Amino acid sequence: MGTLGFWRLAQSDPERIAVVDPDGTEHRAGDLLARANRLVHGLRELGLRRGDGICGLAPNGADGLVLHLAALQAGWYHTPINWHLTGPEIGHIVADCEARAFFVDERYAEEGLRGVAASGLDRRRVFSFGRIEGVRPVSELTEGRPETAPSDRTAGAIMHYTSGTTGRPRGVRRPLTGLDPDDTAERLTFLPALFGITPGGENVHLVTSPSYHAAVTQFGGATLHMGHKIVYMDKWDAEEMLRLCERHRVTSSHMVPTHFNRLLALPEEVRNRYDLSSLRWMIHAAAPCPVPVKWAMLDWWGDCVYEYYAATEGGGTIATPEDWKRHPGTVGAAWPISELLIVDDDLKPVPTGTPGTVYMKTAGVGFEYKGDQAKTEANRLKDHFTVGDVGYLDDEGFLFLCDRKADMIISGGVNIYPAEIENELTLHPKVADVAVFGIPDEDWGEQIKAVVEPAPGVTASPELAAEILASLDGRLSRSKWPRSVDFVEEMPREPNGKLLKRRLRDPYWAGRERAI
C-alpha cells in the first residue's frame, strides 16, 4: 500500500491536471483536494458525523466529484441522484437515505427544490452549485475553512439507489469498514486492474455516461485513484466522443451498446477522421450487445473492447476481446474474487449449457437494501445473490444471458422498472388496467411499451394515448415514459389476478433469438 489513491497522488503532484470538465475547464489535483478538505471541515461544523449521508444532484464534472471525495475520506455515505428524476422521486431518495446535507446544481433547481420540499430536509442543509434563489451557495459552507486534511479520516462509501420490481428505488448499502481512506482508495483500483488497466498519469479516462450510475462512478473513481486524468462529457454525442478521444489521447472509457450503435451510424468519412490509436481499454456493460455490433466495434477499434456483467450489489464476469472472439455472445467468465451459480426453480444447480437463474458471489464486503431486509434476503442463496437474470454457462465457464425473470427493461443501458410506470398510469381515470414491458429497439436495445385496457365507456384512440402519456408530466421522468401505447379490450389475467404479461409481450419479440 501507499503508491495509489487520489489523496496521496494529489499531495505528491498537486499541479497535475486531474479533471477536465465538459466545457473544457481544467482542474489541478491539488485544487480538488483542497476543495474536498474544506467541504469536510464545513460539513463537520454543520454537525455531520461518521455514518451520516449526503446527496448530490449535480451534472458530470468536478463539483460532483468533490462531494464524492469528501464523503469517502470523512466516513459518510454519498448518494449521487439521477438528474432526470422528478421532484417526488428525488424527495423519496433524499428522505430514505436520511441525508443530512443536499447539494443541487442550478441546472436542476426546479425539481431539486421540489424534492427537498417532499423530503422534509431542513432548507438550511441545502446548498447550491451556481445561483439558486433562496439557497445557500456551497461557498458559504467552505469559505474560510482550512485546506488541510481533516482529522480522524475514515473511509466512507457510495450508496447508489437501484429500483426493484415494486418500483420504489432502494439504496444498496454496505457497512463502513473503518479503514484508512487512502488504503481503501488503493483497494478500489482492483476493478480496472481486472481489465489490465495500469496506473499512471499518461492514461486518460473518458466519462461518457451520467456519473450517478454505479459503474460510471466506480470506473471514474477507480481510474482517478490510479492517477489517470478524467475527462467528462456533458451529454452523449458520437462525433464529440471521437473528438475527445483524439484530443485528450483517451486510453479507457465505460460505455453501453447504445453508444456503439450511435458510433457505427456515423458516416464512414467521419469515423475515419479521428486518430483513435490511444484507445486501450474500451469497456462496455449494462445491456446485452448484439453479436454483429460487437464484431463491428472490434473490426473498427481492434482488440481494446472489453465486456463485463455485474450489478450495483457486486459480483460479476469479464470477457476480454480474445475471450469474446472464442465465445461470441458471452458476457464473460467470473471475476477472480467472484463466483457464478446457475440454479433451477428449486434452487438446485443446473448442468452446463442449461439455462437457469444467475446467482453471483463476491468475496468483498456484503450489502443490504436499506430498510428492506426482506428484499435483501429474497435475492440471496446462502452467500450468493441474484438480480433475476436467466443464463447458462458453457463448458469453459463463460456466461451467456438468454432471458430475464424480472420484467425490468434495459433501454440504452439504463434499468427501467415497469411497476413504477404502471403505478402512475393506473391513476388515470380512463385507464382500467395497464401493463408495461420492453419491446425490441434496434438502437436502444429495448423501448418502453404500455398496453392499456380502457375504462368502461372509453374508446381507444391516438388522442387517448396522448392524453394518458401527458398525465405523467411532472410525476415521472421522461426517460420512463412509454414510447407508445396499444389498447386491448381485456387484460389477460389469471383468476387470482396475476397478470400474464408474457402473453402480451411475446408477439413483439417473435422471431428474436433472445427475449432480452
From TrEMBL:
It comes from the Bacteria. One of its GO terms (molecular function) is medium-chain fatty acid-CoA ligase activity. It holds the Pfam family AMP-binding. Keywords: Ligase. GO terms for biological process: fatty acid metabolic process. Residues 7-366 form the AMP-dependent synthetase/ligase domain. Residues 420-498 form the AMP-binding enzyme C-terminal domain. Belongs to the ATP-dependent AMP-binding enzyme family. This is Acyl-CoA ligase. It comes from Streptosporangium carneum.
